[in-house]
Structures are given as structure tokens and as C-alpha cells.
């Protein structure tokens, strides 16, 4: 890659991918359709070292990209490993890029997404910008599903917010990474999920400022299996477990630990009132189960029982592998 290509990059868009070759191809095509004058690079990290179908799909699409790009494989399986690799590659390979963005491999960016995110960061000077992720369901769903809290987002007009919660639509200034200890995304969340929530909680503690950009819209494709009552209820329990684990990391004294147990009890009582409110508002039982099931997740996590929905049945990755096959490490321009 010529030096002038690397040093002219202002933003790097990172995409971790795992067993979604068609999805990552759609994501990349939406990035190739970006409008505006922001010079950007793309980094794709394949997290399936065994098959690498996502890397192959990404490489094919990026043949049509006239900017710099990288497709590489992270052999250590786990979402946080892949995200850490993506942000590390982005910072090292594009040293002049002030903004690092992330989009998931089941999402598509609107044409003004990148320019809106970068413009918001320039105008406000904040360290982190988030935007809406609007769900598009693969199959028709009931109102009980579409109004579930798990399919909501911060919403509202462009403004300062206390924190954002997900990496599916975010921009992070380069200097944020120097404020946090490694690993940037805690790998204990690899298969539980919630590594992004933990990361942004740590960013907030480190003094980072957050902004919400209403205009920077991303669309997420929701697969049919993620619309069943069973899946949503399990996800509610997992969300509670994630919240507990994030709190537990910060409970470093006996008093804090006692407060954490008290929070579990209080959350259970409050969850019942929240459930009644949701039921009255939506007139559907399924959305109302979310607060109590999150409390259940907190309690089960406190006893050491954690779900691991992202753990593949066969892990072919080698934990400490540092040398990748040449075919899996592709740099363009």
C-alpha cells in the first residue's frame, strides 16, 4: 500500500465478521456507496479461521473499492478478540486516522452515515459518537416482538448523552484507546456478549464524552430465529447477566460487593413495577417479561451461571497463534 494512501485516511471503518459471508458482503456494499468527502479505509476481521468464508466474500467486494482496505483473520475465536484485532490493525496501519468506526456484519449503512458521524465528531469535539440502529425483520413479526425493549435504541434528537451501549453504530476518537488498559475489549465477554457495554462504561469512567447523532442511521437485519419468544426471553436473561458482570468488575471492596447484592434484590422488586408499566403501555405480555428476566439474569450470574450464546460448537482456532497464512492477510492499495 503506498504511503500517501495510508496517510490521507481520516477514518477507518472496522467490521468483525463470523460465519456471515452474505451479510458482510451487504455491509461492505453499503460502505462503498458512502457519500461525502471523508477519506476512509476499511478493515475486515474474519473470526472463523477454519472456513474463512467471510474473508473471501469481503475480498471479492473490496475489489470494487478505490480506497485502502485490509482483510485479515483473527484465529482466536471470540467477538472481543476480533474487535480488538480490528481496532489494533486500524490504528497501526492508518496512523493519521483520527476516527475509528464500527459496523456489524448484519448491518447496512445509509449513504450519509459516515459523513454524519464524522461531522458530529468534528463539530462537538467529543470522544465517542453513536447513532440509531433500526431493525428490519426477515419475517413479519407481531407487535409484541417489534415493541420489545431489546429492539429499541436511545433515539431522540442529536444531542449529548451520558453513554452509548453498542458498537454496531459508533465512532471512537483515536486518543480514547490510549486512556484504557489492554485488552481494550475484555475477552471475558467473548461468548457472553456485552463487551461493548463494558468498554463504553470504562470509557465513561475515563472521562470520555458521548454524543448521539440521529441522522447517522444504520439498518440491521434481524434473522427469523431472533424473533421467537424463547430467544427474546433468553436474551433478556443474558442482558441481566451482562449488567451484573459489568457491575461486579467494579466492585473492588467488601462494601461494594455488599452493595452489588443489594442491587440485585432491589432490581428484582423494581422489575415487577416496570413490567406492569410495560404491560399497560404495550398491552403485550412478552415485552413485560424483560425487566423481571433481566433480574433473573443478575441473580444467576451472581452464582456463577453465565450463558455463552456466542460459543461455537467447534472451536478450531489456536489461542496463541501469531503467524497467519499469506492468503488470509490481504492489503489493498
Structure description:
The chain has a 9-stranded mixed beta sheet with strand order 8-10-6-9-4-1-2-3-12, with helices on both faces. It has a 3-stranded mixed beta sheet with strand order 5-11-7. Helix content is about 40%, strand content about 15%. The N and C termini lie close together (about 5 Å). It has 2 domains: about 220 residues, Spore Coat Polysaccharide Biosynthesis Protein SpsA, Chain A (Alpha-Beta Complex); about 70 residues, no CATH class.
Concise overview:
The strands form 2 sheets. Strands 8-10-6-9-4-1-2-3-12 form a 9-stranded mixed beta sheet, with helices on both faces. The chain has a 3-stranded mixed beta sheet with strand order 5-11-7.
Could you say what the CATH topology of the largest domain is called? Spore Coat Polysaccharide Biosynthesis Protein SpsA, Chain A
Main beta sheet strand tally, sense and closure: 9 strands, mixed
Mind telling me which CATH architecture of the largest domain this is? Alpha-Beta Complex
Task: Work out the helicity level.
Answer: 40-55%
**Radius of gyration, whole Å:** 20 Å
- Average per-residue pLDDT, rounded, comes to 91
What is the helix/strand order?
HEHEHEHEEHEEHEEHEEHHHHE
The level-1 CATH class of the largest domain: Alpha Beta
The count of DSSP E runs of length 2 or more, i.e. the number of strands, is 12
Low-confidence stretches: 312-328
Amino acid at each position: 500500500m503506498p504511503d500517501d494512501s495510508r496517510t490521507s485516511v481520516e477514518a477507518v471503518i472496522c467490521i468483525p465478521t463470523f460465519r456471515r459471508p452474505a451479510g458482510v458482503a451487504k455491509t461492505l456494499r453499503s460502505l462503498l456507496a458512502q457519500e461525502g468527502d471523508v477519506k476512509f479505509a476499511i478493515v475486515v476481521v474474519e473470526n472463523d479461521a477454519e472456513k474463512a468464508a467471510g474473508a473471501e466474500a469481503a475480498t471479492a467486494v473490496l475489489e470494487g473499492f478505490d480506497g485502502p482496505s485490509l482483510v485479515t483473520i483473527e484465529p482466536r475465536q471470540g467477538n472481543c478478540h476480533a474487535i480488538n484485532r480490528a481496532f489494533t490493525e486500524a490504528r497501526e496501519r492508518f496512523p493519521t486516522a483520527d476516527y475509528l468506526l464500527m459496523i456489524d456484519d448484519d448491518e447496512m449503512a445509509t449513504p450519509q452515515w459516515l459523513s454524519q458521524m464524522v461531522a458530529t465528531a468534528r463539530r462537538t469535539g467529543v470522544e465517542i459518537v453513536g447513532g440509531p440502529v433500526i431493525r428490519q425483520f426477515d419475517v413479519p413479526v407481531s407487535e409484541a416482538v417489534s415493541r420489545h425493549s431489546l429492539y429499541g435504541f436511545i433515539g431522540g434528537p442529536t444531542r449529548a448523552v451520558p453513554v452509548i451501549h453498542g458498537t454496531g453504530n459508533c465512532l471512537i476518537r483515536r486518543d480514547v484507546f490510549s486512556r484504557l488498559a489492554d485488552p481494550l475489549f475484555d475477552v471475558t465477554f467473548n461468548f457472553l456478549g456485552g463487551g461493548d457495554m463494558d468498554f463504553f462504561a470504562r470509557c465513561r469512567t475515563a472521562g470520555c464524552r458521548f454524543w448521539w447523532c440521529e441522522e447517522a442511521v444504520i439498518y440491521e437485519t434481524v434473522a427469523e430465529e431472533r424473533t421467537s419468544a424463547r430467544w427474546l426471553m433468553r436474551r433478556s436473561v443474558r442482558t441481566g447477566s451482562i449488567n451484573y458482570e459489568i457491575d461486579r468488575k467494579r466492585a473492588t471492596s467488601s462494601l461494594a460487593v455488599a452493595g452489588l447484592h443489594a442491587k440485585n434484590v432491589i432490581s428484582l422488586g423494581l422489575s415487577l413495577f416496570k413490567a406492569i408499566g410495560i404491560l399497560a403501555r404495550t398491552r403485550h405480555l412478552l415485552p413485560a417479561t424483560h425487566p423481571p428476566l433481566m433480574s433473573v439474569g443478575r441473580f444467576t450470574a451472581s452464582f456463577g451461571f453465565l450463558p455463552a450464546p456466542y460459543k461455537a460448537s467447534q472451536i478450531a482456532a489456536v489461542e496463541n497463534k501469531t503467524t497467519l497464512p499469506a492468503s488470509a492477510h490481504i492489503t489493498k492499495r
